[in-house]
Each structure stands twice: as structure tokens, then as C-alpha cells.
Design brief:
With 403 residues, this protein is mainly α. 74% of the residues lie in helices and 6% in strands. The protein contains 16 helices and three strands. Strands 2-1-3 form a three-stranded antiparallel beta sheet, with helices on one face. Helix 2 packs antiparallel against helix 7, helix 7 runs parallel beside helix 16 and helix 12 runs antiparallel to helix 13. The chain is globular and about 90 Å long. The termini are far apart. About 2% of the residues have low confidence. This is Type II secretion system F family protein.
Length: 403
Amino acid sequence: MPNFAYNGFNPQGPTQGVITAKDKAAALAELKEKNITAKTLTPASPLTQNIKLSDPLPNGTDMSLLCSQFALMDRSGVNLLETLTSLLQTTANQKLKDALRDIRDGVSRGQELPVALGRHPLIFDKSFVALVKAGIRTNTLDVTLDRVSTMYERNVKVTQEVRGALVQPGITIAIAVAVVILLSIMVIPQMQGMLQGLNVPLPLVTKLILGFSAALRGPIGLLLLGVIVAAVICVQRYIKTEQGKINFDRLVLRIPKIGNLVLLGGLSRVNRTLATLLSNGIAKNEAIGIAAEASGNRVLEDVLRLGRKSVERGDHLYTVLEAHPKLFPATITGMVRTGEAQGELAEMLDRVSDFYERQVETDARNLTKYIEPFMIVFLGVIVGGLVLAVMLPLSEVIKNLST
């Protein structure tokens, strides 16, 4: 569905953001339900619709703290409206604060808490709503929220480990590219006259760098920039399609070292989410469907959806997982088989998720050590090539003067 950027005001004051709806009329209707009067409502540009110019969504740490405070107040016997008011006052994230305000207003009008939470799916996903509903039904909301807080906390740790391992090489490459572009545009042109005035044959490496600098400053540079921007937009749009998302996630999993780390992170989130859901009495087939969405990878999600269908037919989850050994190692399938046989699937998955969290931490450190030599060589080649391009003509001049 398309995204629409809006600018308007609500009872608290001016507000802006991006909303997803099937058309402009539906977007206006949804904004009206949220007590937002839109002054402007325009289709979000592909270049900006994913850039969070307004307040960001709450992260896992925000949600973990929210759940811990909610559990503490529920355990202390504070009524729901007072709890929501208190959470509203202590929450720093603006989008989470707006959602809590809307939820409190809904509850004050007699709306059930899970229904009010479900009005904000970008913040309170299906797993959160299902767990709260189960906690209320079994009168164990405080225990449930403590488990959810732990789930968020550990998922944040896994995500940070994976991102940390992937961000460092990305930053290194970005800096290297930026340095090359700046040198080509600002430094090399100033040296070009000097190098060409030395009256010596220029080495091939010098000619290449001078030619690259001239091309980058001319029409070719603008054309290259346009091609890169167009490619980014096309890839972004393609990834948003159903098949594009599947192909992208499949490609990521095939990247040496990085794919394995991403897979471990996804498996850890799946197992932790599934264990938490099952521990709170969520039906196995429903829990598998919700955990599939928590994987963050469409390849894993599709396999788990097959697992849900298998369970709904009366079969076991492990039979589907065993058919995909590259995604679900024997460690998982063996524990799932034992857990299903003994009726202790939640406990088994909890142990597996602990194991994979440690594995992610170890692999993230190893990946950084593995990539570091390549990054050093990459930077060395770039810097060395630039130095060589300047020094070779100068050395030739010095050689001619000494003879």
C-alpha cells in the first residue's frame, strides 16, 4: 500500500508523519480516527518515505522498559488507567507516547486493552497483542510482561551484535569512497598542471587517476551520479515487492560469513519469540505464525508458515524444519522434536535461543576480525595508488636531474 506524508494538528498541538493506506480517502479517514486534522496530505516520495524526518518509532530498549514498568505497576495493584497515565508521563519516545495516549483514551471509553493496542500495529505487533491478551485471560499479565521485556531486551542484544558486525565494514568503505571522491574533485585537479608540466612521460597509474578525476568532474560524473540514484530507487522499490523481498533475503543468506550471522540472528529471534508465546498459552499454530513474522527474513518466514500448516494438519513442526537443513540446523530440529514429544517445546526453544545468542556474539566478533585485513588492504590500495601516481613522475624528474 502507498505511503502518505501528512502535516496537521491534534488536540496536543502540531503533528506530522507518514501513514500507510490504500488511497488518500482511507488515509484521511484513519487520521480522523486518531483525532488528527490534516492540513496537507501528499504521496510520500520514494526518496523520502523511508527517511524518518519525524520522531522515530520506539526501539527494543524503549519497549523493554515500558513492559518492565507496566509489569511492576500491575503487580502492585495499580489500576489500568493510572498505569497508562504513568507510562505516558515516563515515556521519552514521542510516537510511543502518542500511542499510549490514544490507548488510554480508548480504555477510558470502555475499550479492551488488546483492542486498543491493536490500533497501533507498528508499535505493538501481533506477538505483543497476543501475549497481553493471554496474560489478561490467565490473570498473569505482570508475569507475561516481564517475559516480553526479557524478549525485547535479548532481541535488542542480538540485533546490536549483528548490526555492529556489519556496520564497521560499511563505514570503512563509505569513508574510502568519500576520500577518493574528495581527492579526485579537489586535490588532484590542483596537482594536474604540475604533473603535466614536469616534461616527463606520465606513468599509466598517473594517467588513469588524472583521467578518472577529469571524468568525475565532467558530464560522466553527473551521469554516474544519476545512474547510482536511479539504481538505489529501483532496488528500493523492487525490495518492497513480494518477490523482491524474498530474493533479497535469500541473497543476503548466501553471502559468506555475513549470511550465516544474519541467519543466526533470525533464528535467535524466532526461538525467543516462539518460546515466549508458547509459555503464555498461545496455541502452537498461532504462535508459529506470529514468530514467523519476527524472524525478519522472508525465507525463514515462508518455512515457518509451512510449519504452521503442518501443525494445523495434525503433524509436527520438526518435520518441516528437517526438510530445510541449511536454514534450521540439527541443533534446532533435534530440540524441537524432543520438545514436541515431551510437551516441553517452550523450554527447549528457550535453551536454543540462549545458545544462538552466544553464537551470534561469537560470530560477530569473528566476522569483524575476518573483514579487518580486507579493509586494511582495500584502504592501502587506494591510498597507495594515489601516492604512487604523484611520486612516480617526481621520481622520474629527480632521476633525470641527477644524470
